[in-house]
Amino acid sequence: MKALNEKEAVVLHAKFAAYMVVLIILTLFFVFSFLKTSEAEISEIKKKTGDCENVYRIQIELCDDIDDLFTRYRSFDVTDNVNTEFLMRSIVDRKMEISKKISQLPANDVKVHSFMISKMDELLRVRDSITAMKKEETRVKEDLFMCNGDYKKLNKQKRNSQFLK
After folding, report:
1. Distance CA 156, CA 162 (A)
2. Are 73 and 92 in contact (CB under 8 A)?
3. DSSP-assigned states of every residue in 152-163
């Protein structure tokens, strides 16, 4: 006994199987596309992360370099017998190296470092004026002590001459 609509049933089963195959292929295509897209996004995220880590590393190096520069500035105060010309040249050279590193990075990433480097010229001028004022103060003190000593000698001689009369 065959069904009267056997041909139609076989055609409908074939259509259903074809639709199922197409849907499975589409599903696999979408899953494959999703995974490829995710892989591309992950690689882009890794690239951006690597860029950020590189910028962070350079920023830390800049902080260390600026700290070293301030240490060199402070060395003027540490010793009196310092080779000022050599120290100034090393400070300028170091500052140029830092400026070169700063110019390699985007401006937004090194705003603080750029500001500090720009203000170092003012710091150096203030440092020079303080040094000049200290030298002037030392000279004036020595002159004052010398004048005071001469004045005491003169007074002593004057008293001795009055005492002898």
Report:
1. 10
2. no
3. HHHHHHHHHHHH
C-alpha–C-alpha distance, residues 107 and 35, integer Å: 36
pLDDT confidence of residue 131: 76
The total of other beta-carbon atoms located within 10 Å of residue 98's CB is: 22
Burial 52-66 (b: 16+ CB within 10 A, else e): eeeeeebbeebeebb
Compute the radius of gyration of the chain from its Cα atoms: 42
Task: Give yes or no for residue 152 having a pLDDT over 80.
Answer: no
* Tokens 């520069």, residue located: 69
Q: For residue 162, give both structure tokens.
A: 């009055």
Q: Are 98 and 65 in contact (CB under 8 A)?
A: yes
The domain locations on the chain are 6-164
CA 1 vs CA 4, 5, 50: distances in Å: 9, 12, 73
Entry pTM: 0.54
H helices of the chain, where? 6-78, 84-104, 111-164
Q: Could you tell me which of 70, 65, 54, 55 has the C-alpha nearest to residue 96?
A: 65
